Amino acid sequence: MLPRPRGKGLRNRPWQDYALFAVLVVPNLALLTLFVYRPLLDNIRLSFTDWNISDPVATYIGFENYREWWSRADSWEIVTNTVVFTLAAVVGSMVLGLALALLLDRKLFGRNVVRSAIFAPFVISGAAIGVAFQFIFDPSFGLVQDVLHRIGVTAPDFYQDPGWALFMVTVTYIWKNLGYTFVIYLAALQGVRAELMEAAEIDGASRLRTFTKVLLPQLRPTTFFLSITVLLNSLQVFDIINVMTRGGPLGTGTTTMVYQVYNESFRNFRAGYGATVATIMFLVLLVVTLVQVRVMDRNER
After folding, report:
1. What are the C-alpha distances in Å from 275 to residues 39, 113, 129?
2. pLDDT digits over 126-145, tens only?
3. Is residue 200 very low, low, confident or very high in pLDDT (cuts 50, 70, 90)?
4. Membrane-spanning regions, if any (predicted)?
């Protein structure tokens, strides 16, 4: 029997490895504890209280905030807005980002300029983009109204109809964040195994079959990564909604759960109830993320 190699297990590592591990990890853990985990626990604690942000004392009320959230009619309307907005933003930005990445992965004249133009909105402030798109969707003199008028179609009132208002906000968000999914997919395409694509072409596979059976499986890790990051980012959208609609029309026409946290905490001065909404959203996100990770692990096996 061969002797067991030394230095392979954790117990046999030299103390310098443990010291290096502590130097690299402990500062990051300290920052995460201070700026992520502690605020999270404080938020959960506040969700069991009735607290006005101007009052130094928070009154413990148990699960009363959660009962109120469950029984309020506007809670389910806001949840519906959040789900519709998030699904449309995730699917829309990922599908369009992949399509543009496939197009601009080819050797085309001026493709670098187009790539930069697609990515540019991602680094621009959401508030600035919201102001710009207010004029684009304006029902009186906006660009959308002008185009529809030229083809004989009456432009909808994006600021009075809740459905069209949510559509307007969603399109604006997708346009702003399209560059993110585009760049990630474009980078992933650089790592696609060319020999597999060539083998599919030699075997006479159609473009659709090559895309679905050869290319997409290689992009699966990237798609999984984007599905989580875009989901988390879209659930935290505040600036575009605040600039364009302030959660309206008709009260909660475009209000999402994040915007409800802001309304309850800083407009209605009910920070305890706002913390409750934030806690519910955190628990939902935690479950969704764990399911995504489990599905991805199962597919990898």
Report:
1. 11, 45, 29
2. 999 999 999 999 988 889 99
3. confident
4. 18-37, 78-104, 116-137, 164-188, 223-241, 271-291
Dist CA 117 CA 111 (whole Å): 10
Characterize the bridge pairing of strands 59-60 and 49-50: antiparallel
Q: What is the pTM of this model?
A: 0.87
Give dist(CA 81, CA 253) in Å, integer. Answer: 8
Closest CA to 279 of 83, 63, 89, 71: 63
Residues 6 or more apart whose Cβ sits within 8 Å of residue 239: 125, 126, 127, 130
Could you give all domains of the chain from N- to C-terminal order, each with its CATH number?
75-300 (1.10.3720.10)
Tokens of 181: 């999914």
- The answer to whether 38 and 44 are in contact (CB under 8 A) is no
CA atoms of 301 and 295, how far apart (whole Å): 10
